[in-house]
Amino acid sequence: MFLRGIVKTYLSEKQYGFIKGDDGKDYFFHHSSFKNKNDIDKLCEGLYLHFEQKATPKGYSAIQIELVEQNITIGYEIPDTIYTSKNSDIKGWEVIEVSNWIVHGSSINSPDSAKEDMIHGAKLIGANALFNIQYYKTTGSERGTGSRTYYYTIHNFRGRAANIARKSPNGQYNLDDLKQINSNAKTLKTSLVKKTTSAKIKRMLFWLIVFLLISILWIYKKDFAIIGTIGLVILASFLSHATDYDSWLEEIK
């Protein structure tokens, strides 16, 4: 007699799993027990199966397994958060795409803030995982009053953008949907480089205007030239910070 159940656990790398039968029992199954070997390609958690039961010394096994719905279309589901790993995989998920891009995150506040900054960057290029992540510190500096210089710690994270997913009867994505990181990152990088270049040009023009004003002071207002020069340089230093918009996104050559 055929029973009905749903795949409760499936370990594709080991080719076995467990079915939760409609009778409430758990049934062990192996790839070799499928009647139609082509059905194995659709095998995933949440899939309904018909099977016969077989008692074994270790419990019940499922044999003569077949799909309840033969023409079912299996899609992919993705995580609802971005996963990070020091390795190149995430347990329970299939690696769909490992991109050619490194995402950086940094913060002067805390390591957690730096990690969140990295995760935000991953979202911008459509990644849902970051592999081989690394944490490191760098030192920043800024001028204080007089000749003093202040140093501070910058927390940094870096990771390789990737996409993970797993098969599901309710999956809404196909493989092509999940292989867009490289193209997304390339487009965004090009846009950010243009933005950085534009900011640098504006900064150069700003300093050119400052130097022209200083020259005018020394020609026409020598009495105020020294004070005016100092004031303009200080003001320009505060107003003309060079912004690098694209350094957080690095292509692996």
TrEMBL record:
Q: Which UniProt keywords apply?
A: Membrane, Transmembrane, Transmembrane helix
Q: Does the keyword Transmembrane apply?
A: yes
Q: Provide the GO MF annotations for this entry.
A: nucleic acid binding
Superkingdom to which the source organism belongs:
Bacteria
TM region positions: 204-220, 226-243
Checking Pfam families in the record gives: CSD (PF00313)
| CSD domain sequence ranges | 2-67
Keyword Transmembrane helix tagged: yes
Do you know which InterPro entries this protein is assigned to?
CSD, CSP_DNA-bd, NA-bd_OB-fold
Q: Name one GO cellular component term.
A: cytosol
Q: What is this protein called?
A: CSD domain-containing protein
